[in-house]
Every structure is written in structure tokens, then in C-alpha cells.
Amino acid sequence: MSGKNLSAYLNKNIQLAILAFSLGLISYAVLKRLLRSKYKLPDEICFDKKNHLGKNKKDFLNNLQQNHEQYLTLLQQAYPNECCLSLNNFLSGSKKIVFLNSIESVKKFSQKVEKVEAIADRPKNLILNFISKGYLGSFFRMFGPELLEIRKSSLQGLHSLITKDSNFEQKLTDELQLLIDFIDKEFIDHEKLFEKEEKARHFAIHLGKEDGLVQSAPIYLQQIATNYITNLGLGIRFDYDSNPEAPVKVQIKNISESLGSLNLPSITNFDKINTIFSRKTINFLSKRINSFYDFLSQAFGAYKSNYDPEVINTFADFVLNKHSQNLNEKKILMDSDNYSEKDILVQYFTLMMAGTCTTGFTLSWALYYLSKDMKIQEEIFNEIVRTVGTSSFIYSKQRSNLPYTEACLNEILRLSSTQALIPRSTANDVQINDYNLPKDTTVLINAFAIHRDPRYWNTHNELHPEQWFDENKNLKSFNESFIPFGVAPRTCIGDNLSKQILFLVVVNLVQRFHFEYVPDKNFDYSGKDGYLGVLRKPFNYHLKLTRRS
């Protein structure tokens, strides 16, 4: 073929390729429009100067990640009930995100439609696959009917351990006593040593300690949550120390950084195709999550070496017992089965990820708010003095005697909104009132804004325990706009445990110590309290502690 003919041949084929590509794009656009016309979603978010949400979708998501406290509230103001955000990607198609900004919308979207829960499950994405290590038996995944029994069994195990173990609360208070002893020894009592021995002064100064100043206080509060969960799961715990590079502290940091690395709206659009363009993020997550998984594998190995099949004291005991029952019944066990040893570790892994962060972050918020509001902190202490005294440990049975404290804890749960955006996903195409939502639509419950809705909360941006009392000064048992642990049918499985831990830690620490907030100089707060990833976490801070006489 001559050069001239070859050139003409190539030009012709290029023209045909361009024509085919153009026809393909037109067909794709037409098909997309036809498919879109099948569904009717809430109003699409409109970006203009009036609502101040951002210039466009990308700008809005960036604003949400940089300052969620302002933009989640602005979103509710612009769209008081519900709204929609479509994230279009040529490779992965269109992702539909519906924001529910009022409790009325949550109720509407939670209703059962032909036995299909409209917001039944969490969105499928790469993050959950990372966390669950690819196995089906994770606590927090329900992507099919075969997983319902798995979740039911897991809940049964936790419930039996918490309700039937007469020493369960004592284990919690024993752990808390170890933290109190550590604080006394490391940050309080060493002041007395200064007066008696000069060497102690030099030693303490060498360690960089200040009188009563607990550096990076949230890490200790997250560790007490970690110890509660590991005790429940494996019957083990980790000692408190002042070393910032202690293995358990490193792993707690790994969890926090993993869950704080991505904003929830971004995660919903984060699938296997997108990972081609997010390799840096994948490596970041993989390194931290795998490190934590290896750390727990070692702990699980130590547990197994002392395993006694006749005794059921921990969650792992319960699951291994179930595993043995299945073997006796000659059931075939796969790696994805709920009772294989690999999956036992995966379930424990997800329990640790969720339990350590949700409870640990909430404890961090609790001391953050109370250390900044001295008046409320002292009101809690005064109620403790009046009703239960200061000479002995406070237990859950005394909770009803501390209504003001209970109101404060509710306020902490409301303001902290650790689950600021609660994710759900449609399992099928569903119709809800006038809306037709396609399968796999992501639904984000804007709990942060709902917890500050001025229609339900008098002083919505600060602690205001008084709004939890009725006109007769009796503590209210319920507020419909209060959803710190999600909404049915997928409320947090550890809500009662988390509230119990929050009560025990707060009242027993306030009973013994006075807390003063000290900001971390490495953070520019700029009027913000914390940041939003999968969960909401306060910025790091320090605490100046004084032992109450």
C-alpha cells in the first residue's frame, strides 16, 4: 500500500472511530436521561450565592470536609427537609446521595415499603471491604439475607455477655480505677515527690512533665474504650503509660487516622474504579488498617493459647463455642462463614474499630465540653456530692439519682454527634411518598444538623442541660430529634454499652478531678471544634488536672 493510500486509509478509520465514539457518547447520554427519568428524587442541590454552600459540587464537598460544622448547618437551612446530590463519573456512572436534614424526613425515609427498608444498609464501598478484610461476617454489614443470622448471633453473644455476667460492671469499674491510679501517679502525686526528693524533680522534668498537665488527653480516653472492648472481646487489656509511642497508642492512632482520612460523601463515591486515581489514599489506609489487624492478630493468638472450651467469659469464647457446635454438626465451614477462626478475628476487628472510635471519641468530646464549661462541670460535681457523696465509686444503679448529670450526658451526645452523617443505602428500587429512589442510592442522615435544629432545641449550639427537663423539673426520657446512635432498624448495637461507659467514666472522673481545658498549639481551631471523617472527632487537646479534696 502506497503512502498516499495508507494515509487515506488511516484518515478514514480515524473518522469512523470519531463517529463511533460520538454516537456512543450520544447513546450514553440518551440512555442516562431515560434511566434518570424513571426516578424522582428530592430537589438537586443548587449552588448559588444565596445558600453559600459553594460554587459547585466539588467545592461543596471540599467545604464540607474543611468545615463540616458550618456547611452541614447551612445545608439544613437551604433544604430544611431533604435534598439530593448527583455525583457523575464517566467510568463508574452516577452516584445518588440523598441528605435527610430533619427528623421528619428521617421518619419518612425509614418507613417500610413493601417489606423493603428504604434505608436498610450501609453503602457498599471499598472502605468497608478494607475493614472487614473481605469476609461476610462483619458486625456492620448486612448485604444479603444470609447475613441476618450472622448479625443475630453476634448480637446474642454480646447480649449474653453483658446481661448474664454478674461481674461485668465490676470489670468496667476496675479498668476505670486503673486509669485513675495512673493519673494520680503520673500527673498528680509526683508533685509531692518534688518536695521530698530533688532527684524526682529532675526525673520528672527529664520526662517533660508539667504539674497535673495530661498531654494529648484524648488518647487516654480512647485507650480506656479500647481496653473495655478488648476485655469484652478477648479478656485482655493494655497498661496505661506516658510513652506516646507505646504499641497500643500507635494502633489507636492508626484507627483514628484511618476513619478520619475521608469525608463520608467522598467515601460513597469511592469504589474499585476510583481507586485507580486514589492510590495514595489506598496506601495510606492499607498501611494503617493492616498494622492494626496484625496487632489484633497477635492479641488473638495470645488469647487462643489460654482458651478453655468449658468457660465462656468473652465474645471470642462465645464464637469459638459456636464454631465447635458447627463442627460437631458436621457443617461445612468456609472462610466467609461466621464461625471460622479467620472470621472470628474479622468480627473482633470490626468491633474494635467501631467500639474504640465511637465510644472513645465520645469520651473525648465529653471531657472537651466539660473542661471548657466550668459551671456545668461544677454542677455535676455538686449533684454527686449531694446524692452519692465522694467517698466511694459510683455505679450504674445510682444513675437515676443523678438527673442533671444524665441531662448533661445527653447534651454531650447531642452536640458531639460522633455519627454526624449516618450512612444508609437502598437495597432495591423503592418508592417513598412522591420519590422513586434507584437501588444503591446513598442516604446520609444529617444528624449533626438534626441535633441543632432550633425547632427542637432551645440553645442548640452549646451545652444546655436544662432543656432535658419538663415544666415539673422531671427528666425527659425522650426527644424525637435525638438520634446519637442512629435510627431503626440499624441502630448501633453497642448503644447501651456506650452510654454505660460514658456515665461511669464521666461521673467517677469528675468526682475525683477538676478539669481545665488546654488547647494544642499545633492546631488552628478558627472557631471549629473538630473534624469529620467516617466519624466526628475533636481536635487534640490537653487537660490540666487538679485532685479534688
UniProtKB/TrEMBL annotation:
InterPro entries: Cyt_P450, Cyt_P450_E_grp-I, Cyt_P450_sf, Cytochrome_P450_fam2. Heme binds at C492. Keywords: Heme, Iron, Membrane, Metal-binding, Transmembrane, Transmembrane helix. Its cofactor is heme. The keyword Iron applies. The keyword Cell division does not apply. GO terms for molecular function: heme binding; iron ion binding; monooxygenase activity; oxidoreductase activity, acting on paired donors, with incorporation or reduction of molecular oxygen. The chain crosses the membrane at residues 14-31. Pfam families: p450 (PF00067). Belongs to the cytochrome P450 family. This is Cytochrome p450 3043A1.
